[in-house]
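[audit] Reproducing an earlier prediction to check determinism. Same input, same settings, fresh worker. If the tokens differ from the archived copy the diff job will pick it up downstream; this log only records the rerun itself.
[audit] input (83 residues):
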Amino acid sequence: MLKPTGLPAVGELVLDARLGRLGIVMDAQGGSLFLRRPEGGREWEVAPEDVRPAPAERRAQWRAARGASTNGASANGASRRAS
């Protein structure tokens, strides 16, 4: 979802059209966006005009994977506390 400024929101999955790779918006400062690959790693800086919405199928895959890892972490964390 775009913020009123026209920039994607922090946490949104987007496509860096310049590099052709997906990234999660981590921050917006000084007219730049900072992205990080969904798998993790180092952030990179990109101009807002080079950012496009991620393809719908990739967003759906990312949300499903993120939900699965969150659910697994919750279950594992709960079982550790119960032990």
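[audit] rerun output stored. Observation attached for the diff report: The mean pLDDT is 83.
[audit] end
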